[in-house]
Amino acid sequence: MKLPGKYVAGFIDGEGCFTIVISKHSTKRLGLDARLHFQIELRCDDIEILQHIQETLDCGYIYHLNYEKYGWKPHVELKVSSFREITEKLIPFLEKYPLRAKKRLSYQKFLQAVQVFSQKKHLTLEGIALLRTIRQNMNQFQPHS
Question: How far apart are CA 101 and CA 129, in angstroms?
Fold first, then answer.
């Protein structure tokens, strides 16, 4: 069942996470691998709403996460990590239904990172440095004085 776009945008405002992942990778030319991820993680008993969000966004995969070692209930995660899905599905959705809370600030940084990837700069050391700078400034919300 598809959900109203404004509802999903509000859900993303509250529970969504935009991330830039940079990890060591022995087979990559630079020895580094950069990726973009969008995810929503919820307790497993909320899987139905996550499935509806996935259907509404028309992208991503749902993963089951086990946090038993922490004494937590199982979780589920909707993750979009395909660059094509990010650019062709997620971004157009969020252009149509913009974020309204402070999460939009992280999303704006995420869009900067998308440009780095679009221009293939993530395949250079300079591009990796730029992604690290963008990532450092994500999720840094200062209260208004």
Answer: 28
Residue 41, strand partner residues:
77
For residue 141, name the pLDDT band (cuts at 50, 70, 90). Answer: low
Q: Are strands 32-43 and 61-65 parallel, antiparallel or unpaired?
A: unpaired
Looking at the structure, give the CATH architecture of the domain made up of residues 5-137.
Roll (3.10)
Q: Please give the structure tokens belonging to residue 26.
A: 């022995």
Q: Which residue has the tokens 């935009």?
A: 18
Q: Are 15 and 47 in contact (CB under 8 A)?
A: no
Query: Hey, where are the domains in the chain?
Result: 5-137
In this prediction the pTM is: 0.89
Q: Report the distance separating Cα 27 and Cα 141, nearest Å.
A: 36
